[in-house]
Amino acid sequence: MKAAHKLLDAVRPHFEEGGKLSKFWVVFDSLETFAFTPGHATKNGVHIRDGVDLKRTMFMVILALVPALLFGTWNQGHQYLLSIGEITVADPLMMAFMDKMFIGAVKVLPLVVVSYGVGLGIEFLFAGMRGHSINEGYLVSGMLIPLIMPVDVPLWMVALAVAFAVIIAKEVFGGTGMNILNVALTARAFLFFAYPKQLSGEIWIHQVKASAEAGVLADGYTGATALGHLASTVGKAPNDAAAAGVMDMFGADGMFSLTNSFLGLIPGSVGETSALAILLGAALLIWTGIGSWKIMSSFLAGGLVMGLLFNLMGLNAYMTLPPVHQVVMGGFMFGMVFMATDPVSASQTERGKWIYGFFGGFLSIMIRVFNPAYPEGVMMAILFMNVMAPLIDHYVIQANTGKREKRMLSSQGATA
Amino acid sequence: MDLEKRFRGFAVGMLEKIEEFYHERVHAMRPRPNFAPRKVNLRELMSRTIRIKKGADIRLKGRPSRQVEAGSATATYAVQPPNYLGIVPKLEVKEGAAVQAGSILFHSKEHPSVKFLSPVSGTVSRVLRGEKRRILSVVIDADGKGESRTFEKINLATCDAQRMKEAMAERGFFPFVEQRPFATVANPEIHPRSIHVSGFDSAPLAPDMELVLAGREEAFQFGIKALQCLVGNDAIQVGIQPGQSTFDGIEGVETTIFDGPHPSGNVGVQIHHTTPINKGETVWTMHAEDVANLGETLQTGTYCAKRTISVAGSEHASPKHMTTTLGCEVQSLTGDPIDEESVRIISGNPLTGARTEASGHLGGLHHQICLLPEGNKPKFLLADGWLGLGLDKFSLSKSYPTWLLPKTKEFAMDTCNNGEERAFVVTGQYEPVFPFDIYPVQLLKSILANDIDAMEKLGIYEVAPEDFALCEYACTSKIAVQSIVREGLDRLMKELG
């Protein structure tokens, strides 16, 4: 590796100030520090530093996303083949494995490429303008964004959403570490509000519209997501016939059964369907201490509590769904593990994390059921809690400073 | 916790009252010459154990053995003003002047009673200056005669606080007294609420206090009594480790046992868990060895500037303890010549110490010399870089598998930054190594935002940069935490005048 580093040393002068390529210093610097941890020794302060840095931390999160990404890729192929009747629900899952992976990859890879291409491009631009090195924050955001997109979303929309999120949600606040809202969710929210029609349409399964037009769509296949179906029951009595038909799909033999929802064999955004794959990632995040187990567990508790409350109310069929079924559907799990735990936009105090997580989960289910126009309640809930997080922290810290003040006053009282 | 403390305080108070009552009334009413009431040290019986759960012991290779070796006398000794925070030196000697051990070299411009004495006899050979003619070091060529200025012996029985302050000032001991808030050399004009001494050093590669104070119990006791003259009874606190017997026979101190990893030996942590500092209060802290030096100086009348330090680190052939004199040459301690390109010499501990050279001198408040491998070579990502498995990397983050290795394994850590500085991203990382009821990140941010009011509220009066050393070590974003805290303390001190 010495030779490689010698090569870098040799070309470095071109990128340094006064060199021909000095405009591309950021690119050179980020590539060099990617390949080699710089031989910067500590100066003042501590002489020894922990081995962990932001690159490794972010890489761990990406590693945690891999199961969801791989499963999502497979599942998009699986859903496509199901939609055109090539396979049936009864077929073994491993059937046509490579076909499914291939179909999925053809759709998912471009999403990833566009997300990274546009996002990193903007990051490099801003880093160059501001004269600082590239922060690693977007490495994770860039992987999260494709995973929360519907598979057939037009790529230009993804590019637009990424650009909006990176510039408006992050760079205007000062870049990585300074943002108030979660960057990936901002991208998703942008699409949701800017292109509501396209997003609620037929882009959840690859080519579902074309298949329908060509008449190859399997019987009874609509291409709607679980939450889309459920939203249609709101406003109807629990014993309504149409609602009962929908609820059948969530029964033990239905398409959206608890098992299918947990395993993720249902239509939905690329990476969000499989609770199992997401929980594998969660295990890594908790194991390495990078994702806050406090946020995850309180988020889950919040969702279950709200689900239980809905069960008790039971005003419509949606509310009667078991809480466990609620939390394995839609983006709940993905949001819980990868979005709510974003340390920058979450609550920063340990006590605050409990509150933040609980209300995040609570609101996710509440929004989802109360407002069928927003089937993806988890996105709204987390963004809302992002905004509330500083307030939560404020009160948690005030409790601490208040204690100190009280102590001071009592000691003054004692000496007076 | 609070309730427990209050209850304990109440219980001790009650027991003392009963004892007092017994002595005064019962015993006096029924005089029995042969019966002396058994003297029970109630405080000792009730000695609290405080469990420190937060913190971490960085398991560095090259811990000092229990062997104590006498360091050789060196050609030069130095007193370095930058070691003493908050001091602007005013020289009292010129280059070429002859000095004895205990002669005044310079004093603090702001508080002239803070005097800095020469540790040895000889001649002042150089006054090293840095930018803006700031004095960096006053170097003395030792003549080896060991002549010492003699001071008047102090009778502690008749000594009052003012007299003791003057005696300490004259004997040059104020530089060794640190005050909180602000973590600077103590301002002699402010009377301290209490004096705190940490009975053990929990920092990586630290010296063993038992060896440091071995044979100096009498001097230490004398020093404690002297400090008692200054702050009164019941105002001196010593924090010890479980099972530590160094201070068993010492009278006049309240001992508290601190059970836990570093920084449980930091005096700031000990103060916080026993008698936290409120706004408007000032406490003094001293190193136990300096208390012994003070005692010996007062007792014998000659200036005592002994140091028993640990000379350690993975780059040292035989890490051990050494006895020497304040400000001695570093190379007399490190032994064999050192390739300073690849080895870093640290005066002080690896978390808070200062970089020095073999030709440099031991820092005035330092009790360690550490030799660590210099980390100035690039690390390839898959080998020893950020993506490597890193079985040889000690890390508080569980993203390295080293936390699964046996707790006895020690690591040879180099001085590489292991990454570049970034904005605050990861949260919940400082709190597990910061045993204060204070929000560390929020305090740092209030300092960065220059919000004096918030700094006060968040508890800046209780902390010193050294208390944040582990936060800085653990920081994923490689933020210079200690220097931010220092900056905040300096700014606050200026603001308050």
The averaged pLDDT of chain B comes out at 89
Could you describe the largest sheet of chain A, including whether it forms a barrel? none
Radius of gyration of chain B: 24 Å
The number of strands of chain A is 1
Average pLDDT of chain A, rounded to a whole number, is 89
The number of helical segments of chain B is 12
Structural class of chain B: alpha/beta
N-C termini distance of chain B: 36 Å
Helix content of chain B: 10-25%
Task: Describe what this molecule looks like in 3D.
The complex is a heterodimer of chains A (416) and B (497). Chain A has 416 residues and is mainly alpha-helical. Chain A has helices at residues 2-15, 25-35, 54-83, 97-130, 137-147, 155-170, 183-194, 196-200, 208-214, 226-231, 241-249, 258-263, 275-287, 293-313, 323-328, 332-339, 350-370, 377-415; one strand at 36-37. Among the domains of chain A are: 7-35, no CATH class; 54-225 and 267-276, no CATH class. Chain A is globular, with a radius of gyration of 24 Å. In chain B, a hairpin with a 5-residue loop joins strand 8 and strand 9 (135-142). In chain B, helix 3 (161-170) crosses helix 5 (217-231) and helix 5 (217-231) crosses helix 7. Chain B is globular. Chains A and B meet through helix 2, strand 1, helix 3 and helix 18 of A and strand 21, helix 11 and helix 12 of B.
Q: What's this model, at a glance?
A:
Chain A is mostly helical and 416 residues long.
Give me some keywords for this one.
heterodimer, A: 416 residues, mainly alpha, 18 helices, B: 497 residues, alpha/beta, 7-stranded mixed β-sheet, 6-stranded mixed β-sheet
Fold blueprint:
The complex is a heterodimer of chains A (416) and B (497).
Chain A: H1 2-15, H2 25-35, E1 36-37, H3 54-83, H4 97-130, H5 137-147, H6 155-170, H7 183-194, H8 196-200, H9 208-214, H10 226-231, H11 241-249, H12 258-263, H13 275-287, H14 293-313, H15 323-328, H16 332-339, H17 350-370, H18 377-415
Chain B: H1 2-29, H2 42-45, E1 49-51, E2 68-70, E3 76-79, E4 89-91, E5 98-99, E6 104-108, E7 115-117, E8 122-129, E9 135-142, H3 161-170, E10 177-180, E11 184-185, E12 194-198, H4 209-212, H5 217-231, E13 236-240, E14 254-259, H6 267-274, E15 283-287, H7 288-300, E16 306-312, E17 320-325, H8 331-334, E18 343-347, E19 354-356, E20 368-373, E21 379-380, H9 440-448, H10 452-457, H11 469-474, H12 481-496
Parallel strand pairs in B: 1-14, 2-17, 12-13, 12-15, 13-14, 16-20
Antiparallel strand pairs in B: 3-9, 4-6, 5-8, 6-7, 8-9, 10-11, 10-15, 16-17, 18-19, 18-20
